[in-house]
Amino acid sequence: MIPDGRTARSHVRHKGATAAADTVGAMSVDTSPHRLDPAASPPAVLDVVVPVFNEETDLEPSVRRLHKHLTCEFPYPFRITIADNASTDTTPAIAGRLAAELPGVVALRLEQKGRGRALHTAWTHSDAAVLAYCDVDLSTDLAALLPLVAPLISGHSDLAIGTRLAHAPGSCAAPNAS
């Protein structure tokens, strides 16, 4: 929700080949035109936020790799939110182009720096049931994503934490409190 009670979705308007939200505070959103028609795709179950700052070199190949993995291997509707936090290079333009080209990709631009700010803003405005993030370098094996989020999607767990630093394979999630 935006502070005045409206949702980010209510700000979406069509601009040529992409749809863009009006600026809300210091934030703007570009989405694929595929997202404008709710009948075109079901709501996202998973929203993977990729926070970026001056990542013009790595952004496109990483988002394309993540999108391909989710499209081919993930059995639920998804969204990838590129959360740019005040990049000064061509990162925002690349993010906007990816959002226009790839279904399920959204580019979020914040005028202030901060990974936490980018994640908070993206997650606060997301309508997905499960929220996640990954670094733009995709240093964690993408094959670990489904086993990590499956207990969340099923309702078995409320929180799951994955790390590339763990020595044991697999994931462990604590059951929810309800």
Molecular structure report:
This protein has 178 residues and is an alpha/beta fold. It has a domain at 26-139: Spore Coat Polysaccharide Biosynthesis Protein SpsA, Chain A, CATH 3.90.550.10. It has four helices and seven strands; from the N terminus they run E-E-E-E-H-E-H-E-H-E-H. It has helices at residues 59-73, 91-101, 115-125, 145-154, and strands at 12-15, 18-24, 27-31, 46-52, 78-85, 105-110, 130-133. A seven-stranded mixed β-sheet has the order 1-2-3-6-5-4-7, with helices on both faces.
Q: What's this model, at a glance?
A:
The chain has 178 residues and is of the alpha/beta class. Helix content is 26%, strand content 23%. It has a domain at 26-139: Spore Coat Polysaccharide Biosynthesis Protein SpsA, Chain A.
Give the arrangement of secondary structure elements:
Elements: E1 12-15, E2 18-24, E3 27-31, E4 46-52, H1 59-73, E5 78-85, H2 91-101, E6 105-110, H3 115-125, E7 130-133, H4 145-154
Parallel strand pairs: 4-5, 4-7, 5-6
Antiparallel strand pairs: 1-2, 2-3, 3-6
Name the descriptors.
alpha/beta, Spore Coat Polysaccharide Biosynthesis Protein SpsA, Chain A, seven-stranded mixed sheet
Mean pLDDT: 79
CATH architecture of the domain at 26-139: Alpha-Beta Complex
Major sheet, described briefly? 7 strands, mixed
Instruction: Indicate the radius of gyration in whole angstroms.
Output: 16 Å
Question: How many angstroms does the end-to-end distance come to?
Answer: 26 Å
What name goes with the CATH superfamily of the domain at 26-139?
Spore Coat Polysaccharide Biosynthesis Protein SpsA, Chain A
- Widest sheet, order of strands: 1-2-3-6-5-4-7
CATH fold name of the domain at 26-139: Spore Coat Polysaccharide Biosynthesis Protein SpsA, Chain A
